[in-house]
Amino acid sequence: MAPKNKKAAAAAPKKEDKKVEDKKAEEAAAQKRKAEDEKKEEAAEPPKKEAKVEEAVEQEQDAPADKRATLKDAIGYNTPDTTLNVVPTMDGKVLNSLTDGGMQYLVAGARANVGMKAGRYMFEVQVFETMALGDAGGWSGRNRGPAAKQMVRLGFSTAGSSLVLGDSEEHVFFDIEGSFFSGKNRAGSFKRASKDKPIAVLLNLDPKSPNANTVSFFCDGQRISQPKPIPESLHGKALFPHVSYRCVKLQVHMGPEPMKALPFKCRSISGAAEADVAKAPKTEPKDGKYEVMMPVGFPDEGTFTWLDWYLQKNPQYVELSDRKILEWAASSGLWKTKSWKSNNDKPEFNFGIPDMDNFSVRRLVNTIAAVVPRNYVIMEVKANLVEADRKQILQRFSAPHFRKVAQVVMGEPSAEYKKVELEKMLKEKQEKSDALWHAKKAEKERKKRVAERAKQLAEAKKKFEEEKKKKAEEAAKEKKDEEKKEDDKEEKKEEESKMEVEEGR
Questions:
Q1: 20 to 30 A Cα–Cα from 302, which one of 59, 115, 159, 267?
Q2: Which of 381, 86, 117, 78 is nearest to 269 (CA)?
Q3: Which CATH number is 290-417 given?
Q4: Which CATH architecture has domain 79-279?
């Protein structure tokens, strides 16, 4: 029996191998038939066209020849159109900023002295150095703003608007991180720009162009943002090139030849026609003397209200005060905790940042102001009243190009000031009256809606009760009918049984 068992054991694997081979052959044949069937179907059906993704067509065309006289004046920056921490080179082509004593947290801003009122022109910016922010202290701690970082914004603004882009409705600009802003609002996004490559912003005010009244953004000669519309409030106004930055060194290029050519020929601002530009007024005084004015008034007697009115009429002055530093910090994105002890003259600095809270930034601002020729208003209500403090402050402005002036803000105010304040009071009173009227109207509408709702609920409840009663009556009637039918059945049965009994008898 042993030899027989050995032969059977040897034959078993051969049968299994044959089955596997047969199965593989069947699978291969099935795949071949499937492929042939697919080829037949493809031959029977017409070939499908691949869908093409249409890319945005560049609508900007090459700038035509222009024989008009071009701009002759050099483009630069008037000192009042730069923040106190801007440090430009002599030719104005490179902008640096202060990065010590808290200044590294404040945004620097510079507006060019030549703006566009017609045509299509561009300017370029390139970051060629970034600087460390230093110790941020509690900047990114709990209840604080976002972590400090380098920032570059470039666009256009109107003359006299805020020097920090994003702090006024009369701004339109791009952030190289990938955002477009119209006024104070973010109005679009795009691809992030490279800091180490030339970045260009183009302003198109040509009414014949399909992109009229728009701004566009380019990086290294390539468009990274489609044309964005300029707010209607800026139409017809002269728009000046404007940059805002923090902890970077910028090369601002106005032309005449671009650092990196765009996909179409476009003139830079320095090559603009004289008829298409507007020039900011020169700020240098005729006698070479800049004013350092010290308002002298009593505390809580409308001194800062008077200052706001005065600066509105005389925008050539720069206010030196703690409240102005806090406004600058707020425009730069710094947050501070609220304080019940705060006031305009000596507000508290609660940023959680050492260089801000220990008043280093105030001392640095005062130092810079003393060496940068400008017209200043020193708003220190208490210090301006005290003779010794006044002398100490004025010692900083001993340079011959400063003229020191005192402005007494006491006694009977002028008729013009009274008129402005009266209009302001009437406006506030009207706003309160309007707010109260709207509140009463809203309350009246609310009560009306509540009454209507209550009426609807009462009607719904009444209808529900009526339906419930009707259903109950119908159910009672049905029950009564059923009981009557049962009674009738019983009576019929009784009669039938009686009849059966009588028949049985």
A1: 159
A2: 117
A3: 3.40.50
A4: Sandwich (2.60)
